[in-house]
Amino acid sequence: MEKSTARLSGLLLAALLCWAIPLHAQNSNASIAGSVTDQSGALVPNANLTLTLTTSGTVRNATTGLDGNFSFPNIPIGTYELECTAHGFKSFRQREITLHLNDVVNIPVQLELGAASQTIEVSANASPLNFQTPVVQQGIAAQQIGALPLEVAGAQRDALNFLVIMPGVNALAGGQNEDYAQINGGQEDSDEAVLDGVSMVEGLLSQSGTVAWNDFPISPEAVGEVSLLTSNYDPQYGATYSAVSIASTKSGTDQFHGGGYEYNRNTDFNARQFGVAERPKDIENDLGGFIGGPIHAPGFWSGRKKSYFFVNFEAYRSEGAATKPILTVPTALMRQGNFSEWPYPIFDPTTTAPNPTYDPSAAASTTNVPYTRTQFPGNIIPPGNAQLMSSLAAGWVKFVPPPNRPGIINNYESPYALANALNAHTDQWDVRGDQYIGDKDHVSVTWHYRGTLPFTQYALPPQIDTNGTRIPNYSEVSRLNYDHTFRPNLLNHFAIGYLDLLTEEVNASDKYRTQVPQIAGVYTHNVESGIAFNDGFSSYGGTQTLISTRPTWVANDMATWVKGKHTLSFGGEYRNIAYPTQTTQGGSGTFDFYDGTTGLLDYPSQTGNAYASFLLGTVSSANVT
């Protein structure tokens, strides 16, 4: 199934009667605005301003109008230097102007009378206060991302986990992570995620926002910045009513810079799990390296062209986890039908009969129920019981391990701790290329890829285990951004992106499905039939089958025109989204066994045993879809 949607956003913003407000396109670029005055506070028209990105040397030019105002809309994030010259005044230069994602900053320029050969230098960052727009936003810069710790616990690190430390983000609903966080009181999944200027909406799943960063994590070493818009943001973000989380991929600079990293979580560093004899094996390694710099090669570097690259590779490998599964298996006596260890009476379901002494006006009890049953003597099912003899249960029971812990519940400690099924073995690439052509054109391309390497794991023997993984499980996010300056007051930004995730669910028990009974009447035996119990005994058989992709194409364009004190923005966005899915979930059937089947019909509390029902083959409910 495929659906195409076209959304026209921000057709025309009202002309503003105060300062010119530069509106950034959805590529999350920043903007600078301000005014030029003399020492008396009088506005200075026709002043020439030059804005230089210090990491690449690219420049933007602007001239103040009769009102003395200037504007640099839609400029990439980074560190800038601003110069201003005007006839009869000393030159003005301000260094170390750092712009973050979606920043809209105001820089007042005050000139002093004097020769142009003299220069007034200011070494100060722009004010973090936004005087230009009502948008409320928060951000984490690359330096903070690199300095703050991220736990290596079951998956590779994700820079967007830092969203949960921002004000207004409630991660409690998502289990102390960002996957299903609620922002500013909004609903789960009601926010939008944007990477390098394009939405991260995941096909017809219609999920974006914080959950998208879990499906498509970005290495902290590859992220330039993280920003969160929480209210009063611009119309181009109109697909959400909660918040917009934005990330940008790190870019190369004039200088080569690289590094390597290794984060290790080891069994020897962990505390022992409560109730187990030894610490489970837990070896996790998150390692990789990155490099970025200029591309001094024909076609990429010349008097008009400057090109840069950034590449990050990250590998995550995991064996085991910090805790082992503690399961419930039948004791040696229970496997033979002897439930004398069970504290509650077990009844023969074939002996159901009306209770002649039943009193509906009296309280229900084991003796005052509408229907009565005969308890198995000593809670032992006779070896020659017809139901026991005809049951298929022995085909699963032969693979069930004996208890290795005392008691009749929580009596089996799996020899294996289970890693995160989706992310235990992954390789990830984060690549970005930038090219500046003169002072009017900037093209950037980014590519993010993550692949899960094949592996299987199980807590019970694989013939009856319920765990699974995804093979294949490959994700890709690609982006192209193009900024063009027609003239200093007329700019255009175009972005197009593609996103997809190919995933197929595989059960640990799949290749053993012919070694357990294949129940008649279901429409497929490509996976095992599921066996489930309602009173704590561990289930058998993996039943999941899923093959899906979520291809998504998104393109947007935003033109910005600064006319005197007014800023007009025109834009639109097109989305082509799909979710081709093939699934036969439960096609082999899921069969549930309840304690009530071997208990009293109208008084199941503290009577019966689900495993006894299983041995007798008395199914309580079944689902075949």
How much helix, percentage-wise, in residues?
under 10%
Q: Please report the number of helical segments.
A: 6
Whole-number average pLDDT?
Answer: 86
Distance between the termini: 20 Å
Number of strands: 35
* Major pleated sheet: 12 strands, antiparallel
Poorly predicted regions: 1-27
Q: How much of the sequence is in beta strands?
A: 35-45%
Describe this structure in words.
The chain has 625 residues and is mainly beta. 5% of the residues lie in helices and 40% in strands. The protein contains 6 helices and 35 strands. The strands form 8 sheets. Strands 1, 18, 19, 20, 25, 26, 27, 28, 30, 31, 32 and 33 form a 12-stranded antiparallel β-sheet that branches. The chain has a 5-stranded mixed β-sheet with strand order 4-3-6-7-10, with no helix packed on it. Strands 11-16-17-14-15 form a 5-stranded mixed β-sheet. The radius of gyration is 33 Å and the shape is elongated. The model is unreliable at 1-27 (pLDDT under 50).
Care to give the gist of this entry?
Helix content is 5%, strand content 40%. It contains 6 helices and 35 strands.
List keywords for this structure.
single chain; 625 residues; mainly beta; twelve-stranded antiparallel β-sheet; five-stranded mixed β-sheet; 35 strands; disordered N terminus
Strand and helix map with partners:
Blueprint: E1 2-7, E2 30-37, E3 48-53, E4 59-63, E5 69-75, E6 78-85, E7 91-99, E8 104-106, E9 109-110, E10 119-123, E11 136-141, H1 142-147, E12 169-170, E13 182-183, E14 192-195, E15 198-199, H2 209-215, E16 223-231, E17 244-249, E18 257-265, E19 282-294, E20 305-320, E21 326-327, H3 332-335, E22 347-354, E23 371-375, H4 386-390, H5 394-397, E24 412-413, E25 425-437, E26 441-452, E27 468-487, E28 490-507, E29 530-533, E30 546-548, E31 552-563, E32 566-578, E33 581-583, E34 590-593, H6 610-616, E35 621-623
Parallel strand pairs: 2-8, 2-9, 7-10, 14-17, 29-34
Antiparallel strand pairs: 1-32, 2-5, 3-4, 3-6, 6-7, 11-16, 12-13, 14-15, 16-17, 18-19, 19-20, 20-25, 21-24, 22-23, 25-26, 26-27, 27-28, 28-30, 28-31, 30-33, 31-32, 34-35
